[in-house]
């Protein structure tokens, strides 16, 4: 049977996948490609999550694509606006026609003899036709994973004692019911991360009361929803000129915040606390509810645009409770302290489940790839795995900053191989004397629960995963393309070293 062959197969039609396709068309024209999307819509995260108030936790001048200026007034944008931005980008660049919906990638097998991947795909959903559920096989010369890092079909839901007794409704934000009516009802949101601090002020507008219940505090600070510099430049300069100015300003500010947090955590703590003192009532118990036990950027910082969470607390429409859950009751939640929180609806904003490469199973020349035993190369490839790349955005800055760089790098790699007649590129593993460590340096629960399933990173470049955009610009755009990389033609087995 003749299999359909493509030069590049992109997996995922979210922010990363659509951007990757646009870069590929512009920088490696003539390459045949397709985008495989397991769901039935473009947008990824921004199409899946539909809970009240959903918004970016990064400014849109850095979350937006480098090649498509963000032109709306709000710098911290809502979910529907971001979804529209992604879809308009796909339509305007014609890449929407390359998306194959209802195509879930299950495994991929590399053949050095043929210098190509054989990819197994399950067709599901409305686009599957009369043969829905069938398994297809495609081949490609390069496999580019842009599927994010968490499970789309299941959020993290820890077991709570007595949850079966609760007579109200329990909802996870990842699966928000369209018909959920919370007007005039008492709501408890379990969690204190980005989802919780978004939900609380949004739901407080209609609910009788919303309580954010947290086991321990998170660092939360306020930023304006509009960018003052962008507002000044808008109209004064063309968007293509103003956009990179604002983008680099925000990159430098976020880098400064991160470096200050790492090098002088006490200073950063003091700055965050002063912001809280300005935003909350004078007698508010900041130590109990907004003083974490860890340093800033051990976990992600949470942004609240225009202090909306603090405004909801000051108005009395929302409150924060801090403590361990002893049990759910018929009418709410009882804490270990004895305090009881009455609730008609409980929202479990308890986080994500990480899923490495969308659950993809890889093998190279019949050798299964065990991800925890691999070492990352430049934070975007795996040592010993040919013609394979993935997009993993920054944990301390906007996802798209890294996604744009990775897409550009993949195009550099493809063009280099074409120019030199190569068909395989295989990152080499570091010398055994080079120490390796955890792939992600975050203490967040969703990361810690999954570290054992992730690749490792090396202590030095190019196996080191830097969380630094300016440094990565030099690495991906201008760094040597052949550094610790083996190039070859078909027929030569990939090297693991």
UniProtKB/TrEMBL annotation:
<dbReference type="InterPro" id="IPR051820">
    <property type="entry name" value="FAD-binding_MO"/>
</dbReference>
<keyword id="KW-0274">FAD</keyword>
<keyword id="KW-0503">Monooxygenase</keyword>
<dbReference type="GO" id="GO:0050660">
    <property type="term" value="F:flavin adenine dinucleotide binding"/>
</dbReference>
<protein>
    <submittedName>
        <fullName>Monooxygenase, flavin-binding family</fullName>
    </submittedName>
</protein>
<dbReference type="InterPro" id="IPR020946">
    <property type="entry name" value="Flavin_mOase-like"/>
</dbReference>
<dbReference type="GO" id="GO:0004499">
    <property type="term" value="F:N,N-dimethylaniline monooxygenase activity"/>
</dbReference>
<comment type="similarity">
    <text>Belongs to the FAD-binding monooxygenase family.</text>
</comment>
<dbReference type="Pfam" id="PF00743">
    <property type="entry name" value="FMO-like"/>
</dbReference>
<dbReference type="GO" id="GO:0050661">
    <property type="term" value="F:NADP binding"/>
</dbReference>
<dbReference type="Pfam" id="PF13450">
    <property type="entry name" value="NAD_binding_8"/>
</dbReference>
<keyword id="KW-0521">NADP</keyword>
<keyword id="KW-0285">Flavoprotein</keyword>
<keyword id="KW-0560">Oxidoreductase</keyword>
<dbReference type="InterPro" id="IPR036188">
    <property type="entry name" value="FAD/NAD-bd_sf"/>
</dbReference>
């Amino acid at each position: 049977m003749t299999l359909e062959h493509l030069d590049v197969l992109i997996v995922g039609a979210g922010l990363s996948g659509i951007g990757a396709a646009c870069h590929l068309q512009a920088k490696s024209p003539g390459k045949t490609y397709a985008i495989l999307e397991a769901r039935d819509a473009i947008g990824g995260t921004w199409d899946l999550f539909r809970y009240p108030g959903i918004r970016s936790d990064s400014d849109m001048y850095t979350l937006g694509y480098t090649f498509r200026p963000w032109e709306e007034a709000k710098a911290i944008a809502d979910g529907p606006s971001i979804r529209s931005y992604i879809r308009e980008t796909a339509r305007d660049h014609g890449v929407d026609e390359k998306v194959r919906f209802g195509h879930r990638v299950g495994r991929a097998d590399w053949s050095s003899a043929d210098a190509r991947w054989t990819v197994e795909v399950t067709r599901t959903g409305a686009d599957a036709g009369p043969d829905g559920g069938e398994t297809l096989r495609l081949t490609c010369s390069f496999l580019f994973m842009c599927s994010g890092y968490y499970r789309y079909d299941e959020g993290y839901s820890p077991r709570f004692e007595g949850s079966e007794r609760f007579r109200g409704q329990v909802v996870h934000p990842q699966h928000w019911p369209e018909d959920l009516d919370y007007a005039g009802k008492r709501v408890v949101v379990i969690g204190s991360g980005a989802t919780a601090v978004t939900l609380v002020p949004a739901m407080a507008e209609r609910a009788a009361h919303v309580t954010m219940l947290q086991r321990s505090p998170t660092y939360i600070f306020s930023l304006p929803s509009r960018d003052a510099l962008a507002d000044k430049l808008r109209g004064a300069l063309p968007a293509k000129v103003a956009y990179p100015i604002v983008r680099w300003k925000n990159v430098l500010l976020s880098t400064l915040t991160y470096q200050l947090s790492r090098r002088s955590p006490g200073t950063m703590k003091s700055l965050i606390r002063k912001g809280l003192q300005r935003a909350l009532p004078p007698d508010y118990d900041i130590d109990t509810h907004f003083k974490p036990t860890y340093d800033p950027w051990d976990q992600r910082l949470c942004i609240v645009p225009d202090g909306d969470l603090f405004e909801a607390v000051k108005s009395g429409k929302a409150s924060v409770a801090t403590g361990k859950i002893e049990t759910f009751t018929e009418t709410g939640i009882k804490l270990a302290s004895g305090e009881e929180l009455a609730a008609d609806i409980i929202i479990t904003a308890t986080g994500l489940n990480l899923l490495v490469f969308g659950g993809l199973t890889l093998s190279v020349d019949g050798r299964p790839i065990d991800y925890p035993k691999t070492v990352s190369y430049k934070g975007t490839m795996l040592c010993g795995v040919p013609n394979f790349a993935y997009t993993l955005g920054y944990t301390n800055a906007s996802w798209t900053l890294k996604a744009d760089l990775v897409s550009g790098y993949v195009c550099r790699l493809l063009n280099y191989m074409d120019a030199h007649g190569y068909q395989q590129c295989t990152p080499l593993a570091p010398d055994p004397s080079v120490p390796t460590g955890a792939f992600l340096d975050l203490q967040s629960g969703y990361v810690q629960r999954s570290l054992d399933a992730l690749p490792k990173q090396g202590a030095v470049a190019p196996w080191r995963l830097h969380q630094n955009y300016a440094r990565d610009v030099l690495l991906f755009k201008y760094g040597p393309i052949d550094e610790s990389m083996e190039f070859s033609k078909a027929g030569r087995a990939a090297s693991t070293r």
